[in-house]
Amino acid sequence: NNDNDNSTSSSTSFPVQIPATEGPVTCKIAPGAIGAGHQAAYSDGYSPVCPNTPAEGSPYMWPMAWTAHVESKSMAFGSDDVWYHSKGIVSYRLDKNWKRQDWYYQRGIQRSIGQAPCDPENVDAQHSNGPIVACRRNNDDYSTMIHRGSKMFFISWKNGTEVGSSDPAQIAECNWLDLQVVGNIRPDWFMDDRGDSTDVQYLGDQHVFYQNEPRLVKQWRKKDFANQYFVMSMLGNPKDDDGIHWPMILNVPGEGFGDDFLQTYTNHSLLTDEEDYLFLLEEALESIGGSCPQMDMYGGGGGEGEGVGPPVTEVHIPSNLEVDPNSWFSNVYTFSPVWEPEDTSDLKDEIASSNQTPAMAVTNAEKVTVLSCYDEQVGAVRLSFEFNDIEMVDGGLLPWTALGFRESNECLMIPRSGADTQIILIQQSSPEEDAQAFLGSLPAAARGMSEEALSSVYQSLESLQDTESFSNVVLETPSTTATAEARMSNGQSKSVRLEFLQFRNSTEGALHLMYAIGSSSTLGFHTTRHCFDVTEFPICAHSESQSEIDVSGGQIKEDDTSSSGCFFPWSKVLALFSLVVVLSYS
């Protein structure tokens, strides 16, 4: 979710599913963790008054159309020595989902995954490590990056071209990369906790030295998917001539696959529609007979490459900006004149005072509420997952929903070892059929989003109830039960509930889990994703009303009188946990 243009996307044959809409689409953020900082690629732009957003109307969000000079210095972990130093000009039309970045000064070694293309003779083998490229960039060459919607253009200029030029006749080379769902930075990215695997902390006012002069800034810290954080400093006392709280200083973490860097913005000014030509260089080039072909950074166009989203590699570059749990607390404050945070005090009091909660641990993980306990009688954990706020897709079908079992506490879709990830997939094939729960494997190749990789997921699936490690499977969806329909008729959110017994020893420790909810009924891109741990497994409380369970040959068999298979007294806790839970990140 940073804005350093270290994008890691690939061209793929698997289609990106864009919501069907009529007319302009604005204020849409990208799915999953990407949305913590970026607009959706299909969005026509952002607005200073996007409705029902925490920063609606805030004077401290970035301007919609502006330009500034930027200077960046990268530092290695555990050192203040500068590895890489660059200077340039950045221009934004965030109301159109556009950005232009010009570089004219580069010194040192840029070390990261997904940086702009590096000539082979400039690769520093000593400091490169696997996919992490260390590129020597000691030049005053003029180059440009343009990001519009889902396309990112890389432009090299002929020697002697004036910095800031938009003369297509001076372009030496042009290529573009498909960023799939990733749009430009959103102007309120640092002030709210929307998106997955993120959090925000408003810090308040502070005096800093800026260009050797004291300046008052307001600061926010923004946590990312890698459990690292950005620090955004906005001008506290605006100038009399414009009254704008300009971006001043941005501290950016390496996010595990690059060095941290500190960036300053100077010489700010606003842009108008008259400067739109700055962002349309490839169109100008094609108008004089030139070309700008698509480049394929990973995978040779077959969709088997690195895939979309953050890269996964066994090599991890540590950051000086790791979240310290001793200093971090959530604090969403945006100076919006209209937005008010949700008051959940009544819900918390009700939960705390309730004497009807069963002897089960409760874990809240954004869209999911989990109940857990350990059943000593059968040697298995009882788990119930309530997926809240489910939006139907594809004409009334459930979106695909997956629960993944991570091998460590790292929040990775694919482990660094490259091994397959065990998943439970909930899917509805047609309106005439009920949704089903399956157990399967997610291969590393699925990151490439190719049809072959996703097909292998389907080939691995077997009914969850028929597996040896799971039993007493119950799946409740909005279309299959009267209970769910009654909740919807009462104005409550649609939800999907999955319950099961999983055979595991009580001493095995925490369950490292993640979930994803798709944008369609068939496997593809997700709209939300989150990692969480289930750490508490109190001894399950048994009652006479529960179905009798016998253990025979390692398998659990239910009494035939229990046709529903339900083993949680959800009626006692449904009223407490049917509300939307405030986002909580750990």
Describe the structure.
The protein has 586 residues and is mainly beta. Helices cover 7% and strands 34% of the residues. The chain has 5 helices and 27 strands. It has helices at 281-287, 345-353, 451-459, 482-489, 570-577, and strands spanning 38-40, 65-75, 82-93, 98-112, 133-136, 143-148, 151-157, 171-178, 182-185, 199-210, 213-223, 229-235, 247-252, 260-270, 361-365, 368-375, 380-388, 401-405, 421-427, 436-442, 462-463, 470-476, 495-503, 511-518, 526-534, 549-552, 555-558. Strands 2, 3, 4, 5, 6, 7, 8, 10, 11, 12, 13 and 14 form a 12-stranded antiparallel β-sheet that branches. The chain has a 6-stranded antiparallel β-sheet with strand order 21-20-19-18-24-25, with helices on one face. The longest helix is centred in the middle third of the chain and has 9 residues, at 345-353. It starts with 37 loop residues before the first strand and ends in a 9-residue tail after the last helix. Residues 1-17, 298-309, 481-492 and 544-586 have low confidence and may be disordered.
What's a quick, concise take on this entry?
This protein is mainly beta and 586 residues long. Helices cover 7% and strands 34% of the residues. It is built from 5 helices and 27 strands.
Which descriptors would you attach to this protein?
single chain, 586 residues, mainly beta, twelve-stranded antiparallel β-sheet, six-stranded antiparallel β-sheet, 34% strand, globular, disordered N terminus, disordered C terminus
